[in-house]
Hints:
Blueprint: H1 3-29, E1 32-38, H2 42-53, E2 58-61, E3 78-79, H3 84-88, H4 95-105, H5 112-131, E4 156-157, H6 163-179, E5 183-186, E6 191-196, E7 202-209, E8 212-223, H7 232-239, H8 255-262, E9 267-268, E10 280-281, E11 290-292, E12 306-308, H9 323-331, E13 337-343, H10 344-349, H11 359-365, E14 372-375, H12 378-385, H13 389-405, E15 424-430, E16 439-440, E17 447-449, E18 455-461, H14 469-472, H15 482-494
Parallel strand pairs: 1-2, 1-8, 2-5, 8-18
Antiparallel strand pairs: 3-4, 6-7, 7-8, 9-16, 10-11, 12-13, 13-15, 14-15, 17-18
Helix pairs in contact: 2-6, 2-15, 4-5, 5-15, 12-13
Amino acid sequence: xxxxxxxxxxxxxxxxxxxxxxxxAARAAATRWDYLIIGAGTxxxxxxxxxxxxxxxVLLVDAxxxxxxxxxxxxxxxxxxxxxxxxxxxxxxxxxxxxxDIMRLSNGKxxxxxxRIVADNAADTVNWLLGAGLxxxxxxxxxxxxxRPGYSVARFLWDRREGRAILAIVRQELATxxxxxxxxxxxxxxxxxLVTDAAGAVTGARARVGDSxxxxxxxxxxxxxxGYAMNPTLFEQLIHRPAYxxxxxxxxxxxxxxxxxxxxxxxxxxxxxxxxxxxxxxxDHYPAKVYARFNTRPDLRQPWEIWVDDSGxxxxxxxxxxxxxRELALYRQPxxxxxxxxxxxILDAAPSGLPEWTHDKxxxxxxxxxxxxxxxxLASLAxxxxxxxxxLEATVRDYNAAVSSGHDRxxxxxxxxxxxxxxxxxxxxxxxxxxxxxxxxxxGQMRVLRxxxxxxxxxxxxxxVLGSGATVGDAFVPGMMLTPALTLGRLLGEGRLGSP
Length: 500
């Protein structure tokens, strides 16, 4: 085929696809739906499936070209008290125990009303998936993993195929409902605004399709649009920290939050952002991809290095056994960054902080990658990493004195070797998260609230649009991102939540 003919055919095909999409959207706009679900991800899919099962007419709309949302990237971690997986192992568990563990592990910062609903109903959600073919990893359920505090009993599980295993089950169930025309799916369609009547009740939403604005009408509108981690501008406005890493689902752009605030709604959870203990990124042009992670877990490798902040001072006990302590210390840094500093003596003697790399590979990065620096003096190293030379030199002197005396001012116990043999090295770690702590405020029926506390009639929300802080606080609670999204979505679809 000649190039000109090929281009004409490509343009014609794209035009036909756009026309088909518009025609489908126009048909959807001509119908009044029982449920308009904005976001065909974890919560939205569960809501749509269970609403359609009981005879509701459901329209699922998503900005992406495929369903699934973060299930494409998720580890697929679930939790529930009273699951069939627990019963097979003879594990006795109750929703009360689950709720108590959620509040303990979230440092009391999860929303207790939401945590209570999830704890009381999570087992049915997990059992639905187990009955549909989800296969837990051998030995699961477990209490926890990753060197963090876990549950008091084993209730945490996932399939070896991770989130894709859940997505496969959902696809199969949704395919049947689509074939029966009990659910209609409108993809590649980004909702631009909610629509209300004269009394302020939400009656649907407006979308831009091609060159036209279309309005989808519904008795109930569900916001399941996910988080905002891939919207750097909104991220910084909410968290007041840089959006360093591009690690989240590409369509996590905060659309739901912006729609709600445009209608007078309030947000919460800004202070509950979790940045982990950081990663080495591909470059200093942000957002960037994760390149590697220096091992910062004392349970796997005790730290030989020191960690310094933007001023050149140590800011945390590097061997603090609780991950939360190290994460919280990083969150308190205005720029969410620190440098892992060491010398040639430590490079030669210590177990590698990047165990998957060879020694030669590690050394080759100093001077060639922006996150790795090497210098013949501490003053020169300080200049390369952007901290005050006098401060870094004083920090190293203080640390060396602690190694000699065995007493560290920050309480560090592992003090293997002084820093004093040039050249000196620094590796920059940047804090980031694929989740979004901030979200819309809802009541016990998942009705979205205005800033004055009154509900927006006919508008409900579930999933990460509620903010991760609502279910995990500022910590890690095993399975309490995915399980709440599925559970709250299911309950809204079943009509067990969402009463006016």
